[in-house]
Each structure stands twice: as C-alpha cells, then as structure tokens.
Amino acid sequence: MRSKKWLTVVFIGVATALMGELRFAPFGWEFRFGMGSSTFFFLLLAFRQAPPFLTGILTGAVVVLFRVLTSTLFLEDPYSFVEVLFVHLSAMFYYWAFGLGITLLPTKLVQKNMLWFGLFVVVIDIASNLTELFARSVLQDITTLSWTDWLALLVVTVIRVYFVLGVYASIAQHKQQTILKEQKKTL
Fold this sequence. Notes:
Strand order of the largest sheet: 1-2
Shape: globular
Strand content: under 5%
Order of helices and strands: HEEHHHHHHHH
Low-confidence stretches: none
C-alpha cells in the first residue's frame, strides 16, 4: 500500500510539471500562470491518500528539475545549469507553501462547505504566490508588481480555484449518480 501512495505522489509531481508548461507569463518575466497549479490542486483533491505537504515538496522539486532540463538556455549550454536553476528555483516554494496550506485545512471542509473551502484555498494560493515572489526576489533581481498586477493575480486565483472545485464537484456528482444507478439495477 505504501508503494501505491508513493506512485501517486510521483504521478502528481510529473503531471503537474507537464501541465505547468501550458502557461502564460503576463508580467514579462518568469513568474507565470499555468495549468500546473490547477493540476496540482485537482490531483490533491482526487487522490486524498497523497499527503499534501510531502506531495508539495516532491512536486516542487520535479517542477524545477523539469523546467531546468527543458530550458533552451540549458539545452544550448549545459554549463549554465546553476544560472537556469536560479531562474526556476522559486517555483518550488509555491508548491511547498501550497502543500503546507492544504495540510492545515480540515479534510472534511471540502465536503461540508465547498464555498468556504474555496475561499480558504484562494488565500492559500495567494500566500503561495507571495512565497514564490519573495523567493524570486531573494534569488533574482525582479521588478515589483503594480496594483493592477496584484488584481490580475487575485482574479486569476479565484477563477482557477473555483474552476477546479467545479470540475471536481461535477466529477464527484457524476460518480455518485453512477453508483446510485448501479445500486438501483441490483434491486
């Protein structure tokens, strides 16, 4: 059973890294909005047996390693590994912070009140982005975000979190309806 949990954690890390490549960088530098964070959140919901903080640690490492190894600068000059690592290293802190934040939430909250759960996840996501931005400011020379950038960050975060929750709730409802139909057939 333990190996299944580890396979799930590795799967989440790899899926997040791959989906993170579907992205856009609206601020003109490496801080980006991508499908990776949505994938990470969705898979944490779908695979409850995966411990969120441990999954965040592994996912952060996999995402950074994947970005470094697929960076055009690294591919052209393998000696630039450290330079490319410093460009992408701060993304790791996002997943660490997000995993820690999800760990701190009561597990029953998603079933009891999805609206409140979503609000807490929005706060966790914003705090995770702040953690990543702080790490990026320590590791690199970056420009600060304007208030319109912060507003865009907030809007994207709210849409992303509630979109994932909507997809998750739809799948859960469909699964429940399928189970009920099967039970009626056996009666």
